[in-house]
Write a structure and sequence with these properties.
With 244 residues, this protein is an alpha+beta fold. It folds into two domains: 11-72, Arc Repressor Mutant, subunit A, CATH 1.10.10.10; 77-234, 3-Layer(aba) Sandwich (Chorismate lyase). 27% of the residues lie in helices and 34% in strands. The chain is built from seven helices and ten strands. The protein has helices spanning 11-24, 35-42, 46-58, 86-92, 110-117, 164-172, 190-196; strands at 62-65, 69-72, 77-80, 97-108, 124-134, 137-147, 176-187, 203-213, 218-227, 231-234. It has a six-stranded antiparallel beta sheet with strand order 4-5-6-9-8-7. α1 crosses α3 and α2 (35-42) packs across α3 (46-58). It is elongated and about 70 Å long. The termini are far apart.
Amino acid sequence: MASGVDQNGTKQAFVRDTLLELVGGLEIGAAIPPERRLAADLGVSRPTLRAAIEELVREGLLLRRHGSGTYVAEPKIALPLTMTSFSEDMRQRGMRPGSHILSFEEQSAGAKLGARLRVSPADPVWAIRRLRLADGETMAIEFLHVPQRVAPELTQRDLEGQSFYDLLARRYGTVVVSGTQTIEPTVTNEEEAEVLGVPVHAPAFLFERTSTSDRGEVVEFVRSIYRGDRYRLVTELRPALSAR
């Protein structure tokens, strides 16, 4: 590995460029050399090297495992902010979507959930917790709540390995056309970390979405925890007409 500092840039920029070249030549999951060795090879201080590594960790190119080392991370999946299902998103990326049902129950809506679903607190809803997969790898935990009247014969088997939106359209003629979604950064708790196979307090995205059908009926309220190390959010921006 060549040493020295690019005269046209800072030491950290030089280290970053060298690390990018190193990462590009390694397989996903491979460990990079120890910091002490890298700093010596590059002729820079360990704090300078560490700052460059942390920058690549924040960008999702490297993954730190405490007590183990630093590894080449899986590339992040671009998640567009559009009205599509998880299954459709994964198929568009050439990946195989999947689901594993963790729990499937019938319960009363209650006041808070009833307000979101526009049903009476006493009305029955399906409460479903499922693990979302892409090419067999964990991607998100989804907490799905559906008014029972929207899908009265819904079973656990119906949701294994297929899109809920596809099921609604095919079986009930219900097409999801709009929704309201909020997104905020969070970290995984112990239970979420265990299910997703990530460290406790790993970065994650919390999505909450209420979706409406072409008949104006609320069909779901979903709360999802997406792995922060596998996703980046993408949105298309357009100027307002008044800004022209």
